[in-house]
Amino acid sequence: MPTPNKTRTAILGARRSVTADRDLARLRAAITAFFFLDGFVFAGWVARIPAIKDQTSASEGALGLALLGVSAGGTATMMATGRLCRRFGNHPTTVAAGLLFAGSVALPPLTHSALALGLVLLVFGTGFGALNVAMNSAAVDLIAALRRPVMPGFHAAFSLGGMAGAGLGGLIADHLSPTRHLSLLAVFGLLLAAAAGRTLISLPVPAPRDAAGPAAESGNGAAPEPSPGAKRPGRARWLVGVFGLIALCTAYGEGAMADWAALHLHQDLDASAGLAAAGYSVFALMMAVGRLSGTTLLERLGQTRTLTAGGATAAAGMLLGSLAPTVWLALLGFAVTGLGLANLFPVAIARAGALTGPGGVAAASTLGYGGMLLGPPTIGFLADWYSLPIALTTVAALAAVATVVAYGTRNAVRTAGN
């Protein structure tokens, strides 16, 4: 028969377990809100690119250089954000970056030249890059505590946000000016970041499920140091580079869809402004569908099969989307592309973070968003030299590269514990 002390200890342990589970659920909801915010705000900006292009009287090449500001600001900030996460913690850094990102989306419609647009997009890109590193690092900590590959679910929230932002942008593109639309979007984003940030700052980073006791937690939100990369740093850095290359190929495709899909549908296939904006919405919807099923796919198929199947699917879809002669076939191709690309980026970032913590997230994200850095000017210049449909086929080529890299490094990944 249990003694009163043992009974009391068991009750206290059960209460602590319930409290811990409740805190994990609250953290998961708050981090999910930031992923949704990221996609919603970014897609709202993307939906107004054609209107802002007309406002600034920019050519395709000049617009491509201006759009470079988003990627340049993001990639220049990412490695520094990794250091900020280690110093101040993932949670406070996420909140600060979210506020900057949401507030700066109101700036682009205030410009009247490609140069001014590029400069304000540097600020917007800084918030975007910092938020992506910080919230992914926070997600990696939570995954370690849950011991389940739930990163695709967080990125599904990003895609759902993108779908909602692009869909809303398509509905009001013909009725609301870019200035008013993006100003309202900034207000909404700031309120959401403040609400989710309150929860995020109030709770500590959770300890990994197999960690020894509460000492593994940090009261100020700083992330615990990871152990896998510390044991074999050279191999860990090499694998982070591999995952970063896969992320690069994926981000190139996501950036191309965000920046050029609407213009392709409107300019090359004579779609209306509203239907053109729906191009990115369809893409984001199918990315969300793929990511919502991503945890199940990873648990059943494993990482390599999930990555290779996704890359091959994206390559086929983008060939259809870029070369299709009708709007509806192009939309079908965009949908297939979204389904294929869905889990490549989240898997790559999650594995890099598991290997070396915020530094791994920052390194892989920097390489990954290098794809966005290369994408806008590359596609813009190729569109000037050849045509926009031909330029968009480079997305299919890089999706194929990601497939080959994932398959070619399967043995190294498997021996690393995947």
Molecular structure report:
By secondary structure, this protein is mainly α. It has a single domain, classed as Growth Hormone, Chain: A (Up-down Bundle), CATH 1.20.1250.20. It is 83% helix and 0% strand. The chain has helices spanning 4-47, 49-56, 60-88, 90-104, 114-146, 151-172, 178-202, 228-231, 233-268, 273-292, 294-301, 303-323, 327-341, 344-356, 358-385, 388-408, 410-415. Helix 1 runs parallel beside helix 6. It is globular and about 55 Å long. The termini are far apart. Mean pLDDT is 82; it is low at 7-15 and 211-231. Residues 27-414 form the Major facilitator superfamily (MFS) profile domain. This is MFS transporter. Residues 212-232 are annotated as: Disordered.
Main attributes of the structure:
418 residues, Growth Hormone, Chain: A, 0% strand, MFS_Transporter, transmembrane helix, MFS_dom
